[in-house]
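Students often ask why inverse folding is considered easier than folding. One informal answer: many sequences map to the same fold, so there is more than one right answer. In these notes we will look at a single instance of the problem. The structure comes first.
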């Protein structure tokens, strides 16, 4: 079902394109688009369909998804590594969490917040530093596919320190709250 033709002007404006740009992208003349938007003409079904199909394509092309936000390089740690090793990796790369990866799958997360919480419950920081990551890790980061929309990733980051991105079942990237904020700051 095709939306009401009054939606053409609304969607075009929301996409931030001119009538001329819509004309060029859709193959419908700019003068006809102007007449449709002003309500001076009732166009045929084929022209309306061309315009809505074009507006839908433009919208999809401008949608921000996980693959456009993610960082492809993932700093991670093995479950057999020590907490000290995990801390050194976090410090070296300026990150506050690391996925715990075993055989290509995320099995947990180690975070600075989690380490600090454990530190407050034990008497020796040396003992914690020697502890294996598998004994100190938290739940695994959630995963999304590369085409997951920005809004879903944003909602997930309200509850998790980071989200892993997968392609064909393999981890291909990571999105942190900082990555999401950087995307918002770059938006035009």
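Output (designed amino acids):
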């Amino acid at each position: 079902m095709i939306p009401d033709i009054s939606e053409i002007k609304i969607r075009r404006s929301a996409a931030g394109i001119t009538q001329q740009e819509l004309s060029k992208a859709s193959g419908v003349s700019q003068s006809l688009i102007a007449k449709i938007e002003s309500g001076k003409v009732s166009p045929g079904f084929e022209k309306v369909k061309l315009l809505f199909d074009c507006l839908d394509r433009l919208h999809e092309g401008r949608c921000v998804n996980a693959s456009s936000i993610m960082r492809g390089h993932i700093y991670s740690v093995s479950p057999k590594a020590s907490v000290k090793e995990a801390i050194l990796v976090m410090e070296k790369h300026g990150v506050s969490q690391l996925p715990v990866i075993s055989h290509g799958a995320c099995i947990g997360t180690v975070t600075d917040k989690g380490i600090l919480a454990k530190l407050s419950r034990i008497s020796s920081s040396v003992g914690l530093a020697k502890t294996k990551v598998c004994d100190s890790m938290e739940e695994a980061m959630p995963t999304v596919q590369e085409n997951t929309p920005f809004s879903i990733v944003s909602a997930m980051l309200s509850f998790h320190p980071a989200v892993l991105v997968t392609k064909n079942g393999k981890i291909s990237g990571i999105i942190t709250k900082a990555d999401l904020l950087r995307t918002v700051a770059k938006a035009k």
